[in-house]
Amino acid sequence: MTITTSKQLPSLAQLPETYLIELSKFGAISLSGEEQSKYLQGQVTCDVNSSTESSLLIGAHCDAKGKVFSVFRLINRSSAHLLLQPTASIESSLKELKKFGVFAKVTIDLTENLSFMALVGKQASTLLQQEYSQVPDSLTPVVQIGSTSLVYLCGEQPRYIIIDEQVTITALSEKLALPMYSQSVWDLLEISQGFPILTAKTSGHYVPQMLNLQAINGISFTKGCYLGQETVARMQYLGKNKRALFCLSSQLEQPFQPDDVIEKQLGDNWRKAGDTLASYQADDGSCVIQAVLANDGDLPLMRVASQADSVVTNQTLPYTLVAE
């Protein structure tokens, strides 16, 4: 039996109760070696020293000015640190990590022998319990069963990332026999949950607080020095940051394009409201957009510039921003 990835693009309300997502555009940077933790601790925003075999950390890798190369989820697998993230944000981060890694006893590579799949929905935990002796949860978010890593992500819909070689992932997907969607649906979930999605184009443009990293436990303010730490601390304690990550929605007549601009109304005029990071448009025309906008009060009336009759509204995220 072969599972075919659906070409359908459903809205959140149209998704089935439980389903799979083929994470074909997902990858990881691997750090291993005697000084892997020491080195990574000085490079990223999360407290690597608190990482264990069963923990899941969110973090960002910044340049010296505090601009984010990539946002990742950190797990441990086979005695290595894995920085899980979309492949689109890996290149610049990997290059910078390798540049400074030559001075430490650490091996930094792109994982090429692992595949990724997500199991999402109400019955996800029950289905995994039928296949594995232990299933991760909020207290133990990462579990290693043989060659398989299982990662639990909390949210409105339980999500599990399953990591193994492709042959094992394929066999599991065939056994589960659930609807399989493309990674676009993963983007829909990430946007709705307020988890930043960076690409090669948007890498290196934003400090962590502009991506709401402080609100999703992606920054440790007690760990000590790391690359870009001075800028991140100044943004937090001096209230210098005036932008934030938003989830926007609209019903559109035409496809939303990567270069489309979100505009805000100022009197009788329209001006660019901010930057678009990612978007997902369902087959019914409903569209969600991840954008970095000014965070200085109530949002004004907004639209997609290329579709003048459109109305863009702000959607509530599942967390609140820490007061600057």
From TrEMBL:
Domain tRNA-modifying protein YgfZ-like beta-barrel: 241-296
Record InterPro entries: GcvT/YgfZ_C, YgfZ/GCV_T_CS, YgfZ/GcvT, YgfZ_barrel
Xref: Pfam families: YgfZ_barrel
Matches recorded under SUPFAM superfamilies: Aminomethyltransferase beta-barrel domain (SSF101790), Folate-binding domain (SSF103025)
UniProt-listed GO biological process terms: iron-sulfur cluster assembly
Family matches, as PANTHER family: TRANSFERASE CAF17, MITOCHONDRIAL-RELATED
Protein name: tRNA-modifying protein
